[in-house]
Design brief:
Elements (H helix, E strand, L loop, with lengths): L1 H11 L8 H15 L2 H6 L4 E3 L6 E3 L7 H9 L1
Antiparallel strand pairs: 1-2
Helix pairs in contact: 2-4
Length: about 80
């Protein structure tokens, strides 16, 4: 599924980078990791904030961590 999604996105947006199979896999892994970590985030004292463009809660601290560091965190 992810490989086909990568091909479709690169075809639809040829001038946009970041749609490689490996990057989409990391995005999926990141989402699955943090979507199951709400209790952990509350215990760490992180206040959840709602992004303006979506109703999905996003801890403010995650917005400050660079993408590369986040992929390392979820890979551990």
């Amino acid at each position: 599924f992810i490989k086909q999604l990568s091909l479709d996105l690169r075809s639809a947006f040829p001038n946009v980078e970041g749609f490689s199979w490996s990057n989409l896999y990391k995005i999926r892994k990141w989402y699955l990791f943090y979507s199951s970590q709400n209790n952990f985030l509350y215990q760490a004292g992180t206040k959840l904030e709602t992004l303006e463009s979506t109703s999905v809660p996003m801890p403010a601290i995650l917005l400050r961590v660079p993408w590369r560091h986040q992929t390392v965190i979820v890979s551990k």
